[in-house]
Specification:
The protein has about 240 residues and is mostly helical. Helix content is about 75%, strand content about 10%. Strand 1 and strand 2 form a beta hairpin.
Amino acid sequence: MANITVSPTRMELTRLKGKLRTAQRGHKLLKDKRDELMKQFLDTVREVRSLRAEVEEDLMRVHKSFTVASALMSSEALEQALLYPKQSVELTRTTQNIMSVNVPVYDFQTKTKSDSDIYPYGFAATSGELDDAVEALGLVFRKMLKLAQIEKSAQLMAEEIEKTRRRVNALEYVMIPNTQEAIRYITMKLDENDRSTTTRLMKVKDMLLKDAIEAKRAENARAMEAFSKSGGAAAET
């Protein structure tokens, strides 16, 4: 009851009992949400680790191919071949709701449908290693986009887990115990008031009974006195 002021009335007791039931239901729902978010988060983290390893391996392969191509071609020819890209992409972003968390979903579409448009150069003056590097880079781009999507999802879920954890702790360790303590305090006060009222009623009853007994005795005494006087007068006559 520290730092809590409540009015010890039955109306306040009813209100606090309703508040406690709501808090307990909310606590259970938030715990279930936190547990499910943790499951989703761990699955996402495992997916991030696996996909990141694939992306890093593919990027190493791309880097190796570009290194070989740069060794076979002059730097001017390599720069000239990649200077004007033929293909372009359009990135779209939508959201998906996972346990009240709006996670991003990325997708992209190429401006043209031809696979050969990823090569912004003619094949006569370039090496096959450059072709392999450009093709591998085009393939790894989709994986990098997917990696960015699930990493952002993991970050958003981690933030939501932390917020949910704080709410669960606030309910479990602050609000629910304080409300229960307030209910106990009001119940105790009402019980004390009931006992005090019962005691006062018993005292009033005893006082009324005592007064009735005293009045009855006084009435009997007056009757006896009147009877004695009437008896003495009759004897004199």
